[in-house]
Amino acid sequence: MHPTPDPPPHARTCGARRRDGGACTNAPMNGGERCRMHGGASPQAKAAAERRTLEADVSRLLVELDVAPVGDPLAGLLKLAGQVVTWQASTAALVNSLESTRYRAANGTEQLRAEVALYERAMDRAANVLGAIARLNIEERLARVSEQQAEAVIGAIEAGLVAAGVPGERMVDARRAVARHLRLVEGAGA
Description:
Strand content: under 5%
Oligomer: single chain
Number of helices: 5
Shape: elongated
Structural class: mainly alpha
Helix content: 55-70%
Order of helices and strands: HHEEHHH
């Protein structure tokens, strides 16, 4: 056997151990970690390579989107919950449209359809996000934040009325009008 020359330092190689003990210098399968001779063409390796390629594409897209930080994590989690539940319902519709949840692969083995795996993951994620919301008691926290904001607005308006010299009975009327208006605004947002 002839010794295989070392690959250039920047080139990706399979890296699996050859029979002679050296590292395989073949290029890995597209998106994979191993060459064809060391399992890179197996269905599991191809699926993992496809997943890694997709994750890399999504990561690049997120960088391009220049995502802003979350200002209100509680509202962000509620928005995420809506998206996760919608995704779960969408994958459920995909599974419901299938004639069978399994199929025969080219090698004759019975396989679970990818749509079913997506649906199972979507259910798990929905359960995790909804469980987090329940544990954090987000609805009650958001209600408290809204109440504190309303009290701050009313306090600022009262301070302005006092500074303007509005008499006491007019101040009570103004406070009621502000509270009534804030309740209407809050009701419209729900």
